[in-house]
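Give me a protein, keeping tokens residue-aligned:
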Amino acid sequence: MASVSLSLRTVEEIFKDFSARRAGIIRALTYDVDEFYGLCDPEKENLCLYGHPNETWQVNLPAEEVPPELPEPALGINFARDGMNRRDWLSLIAVHSDCWLLSVAFYLGARLNRNERKRLFSMINDMPTVFEVVTERKPVKDKPNADSGSKSRGSTKRSSDGQAKSNPKPAEESYEEDEDEHSETLCGSCGGNYNADEFWIGCDVCERWFHGKCVKITPAKAENIKQYKCPSCMKRGRQ
């Protein structure tokens, strides 16, 4: 097995590692499926499918270290090869691979805080699972709710008349509804996903949303802004 860099710390670095390992596994189960099938000889010992950070894949014995350097993928995938329909067997490995990819990502992200973990999962969740790719299933889109067209994200937004607009979500609304409504909102500065636990501010010109910390605006400072213009719109206004 290739060694794992223990310096992985940021959400972006962990997501990059996840994406590369995922790409390797998908290649094994799709483009290279005949080669992969041949390597999974039921007469051999317990075999595992690994995805590596360089987007390659490998069928190999499990790590000998106890505990291993990383969580291990499903063990003995080769034993069921000849006893199952080929498509069903590949689908089963795909499901186990999805579980392994998530476990590795959150193992590497053990030092992330709550908001960072939530952002990491949101980035991962925006991608089709290995199972969906292998079985050619289209991800089910979330049903839009009544407020899905609103730009409000529960953060302070200033109107042209200087009045603050705020649409905080009622406490009784479910977590799933909140995620459905806001999951596609990205910070116009860092590209990070919306997080209800952080202060956001919306530009009254381009209508993009930003982390307050990314544009150096605090909630207290926002109260004194009649019309907020993001750095990009401010720059265009000076040209």
The radius of gyration is 23 Å.
